[in-house]
Amino acid sequence: MKKRTAFIGALLSLVSFFQPLIIKTSVVFSTFSLLSLIILMPQKAEAITAMDYVKSGRFRFGVNDYSGAILDFTKAIEIDPNYADAYRFRGFTRYKLGDYYLAILDFTKAIEIDPNYADTYLKRGLAKKDAKDYSGAISDYTKAIEIDPNLKDAYNNIGRVKHILGDYSGAISDYAKAIEIDPNYGIAYYNRGIVKDDLKDYSGAISDYTKAIEINPKDANSYANRGIVKDDLKDYSGAISDYTKAIEIDPNYGIAYYNRAIAKRKIKDYSGAISDYTKAIEINPKDANSYVNRGLVKLLLKDYSGAISDSTKAIEINPKLHQAYFLKGNVYEKKSNLKDACNYWQMASIFGSNSKNLANKMKESC
C-alpha cells in the first residue's frame, strides 16, 4: 500500500495492495564579616496572577507536559474567567491530546470573549476537522479569512477538507489561493500535488512536489510522494531515486522503504525488495503489509517456508487482512496442498477479497 500524508497548516504553524514555567531561584546571602549578623527580613509573597499561570502553561506545553499545561491554564481561568488566551491555549493543548470536543468548547469560549482573533477560528476549525465536522471546519476557516484575508493557513486547511470531501477542483483552487498569498508556501504545493495525483494529473503532481522540494530541500514527504507518481508512470528508477532521497533525509521513514521495495520488486530486484521490506518491519514491527509483501517476494523466489512465515505473522498482527490469507493459500497451492490452499482462500473471501484471481482459483481447485 502506497501512502500519502497531507499537511494541515497551523499545526506546524496512501492505493491498492501490492502497489505502490517552573522557575528555580537561588537566594544568595552575603556576609560582610565573620562577626556580622544576618538578619532575615520578612518577605511579602506576591500573588500569582493569571498571566503567570498562562506563562507556566505555555512552558509546560513546550516540553510536552500537556497535563501540567492544562492544570496551569485552568488555574488562570479560575483567577480570570474572561482570559481568552487561557481558553485558547487550553483548547489547543486538549486538541494535541485528541480531546477534540473539549478543545472546541474552549475555543468557542475564547471566541465569545474575543470574537475578532482569526487564529482561534483557525484552531477550532482544526478540531472540528479531526472530529469529522467538515462543514463546521470550513465555516471556521472561512470566518478566519473574513478577519484576515491573507491567512494562508486557512486557505490551505479549507483545501484539505475539500479534498477529504472529494471536491478536488475546490481543493486545488484553495491551495492556489494560499500559494498566491505566499509563493514559498511549500505545504500548499505538497497538498496540491496529492490532489493532482488523485486526479491522475501526474505531470502536475510532479511539478508541485518538485516546487515543494525547491522550497524545502529536506522535505522527505515530497520526495516520497513524487516517487509514488513516478512509480505510477512506470519510471521505477526515478521512483527508487526519490525514495532513496527521502530515506537519506529521514532514515526511519518506513513508508519510503516499503514503497522502494515495491519498485524494486517490479524491476525484479528481489533481494533489494526483501531488504527494504525487512527495514520497514524493523521500523514498524506491526506493519502487516510489509510482511505480506515480503512474503510475496519469497513466494516468487520459491522460499515457501519463508512466505508461510511472513503471511502467518501478518495474520497474527491483523487477523482480518485478506491479502495475507490469499498469499498463504497461494503458497500451499505451489506446494500442491490444495486442501489448505482452499481453506485459506476461503478465509480471504470471508474477510473481503473480491479478487477475480481468487474467484477463479476457488472455482478451479476447490
SSE arrangement:
Layout: H1 50-62, H2 66-79, H3 84-96, H4 100-113, H5 118-130, H6 134-147, H7 152-164, H8 168-181, H9 186-198, H10 202-215, H11 220-232, H12 236-249, H13 254-266, H14 270-283, H15 288-300, H16 304-317, H17 322-334, H18 338-350, H19 356-365
Supply the helix-strand structural class.
Answer: mainly alpha
Compute the separation of the termini in Å: 29 Å
Uncertain stretches of 5 or more adjacent residues: 10-41
The whole-angstrom Rg is: 28 Å
Give the number of DSSP strands: 0
pLDDT averaged over residues: 89
Shape: elongated
Order of helices and strands: HHHHHHHHHHHHHHHHHHH
Provide an overview of this structure.
- With 366 residues, the chain is mainly alpha-helical.
- 69% of the residues lie in helices and 0% in strands.
- The chain has helices at 50-62, 66-79, 84-96, 100-113, 118-130, 134-147, 152-164, 168-181, 186-198, 202-215, 220-232, 236-249, 254-266, 270-283, 288-300, 304-317, 322-334, 338-350, 356-365.
- Helix 10 (202-215) runs antiparallel to helix 11.
- It is elongated.
- Residues 10-41 have low confidence and may be disordered.
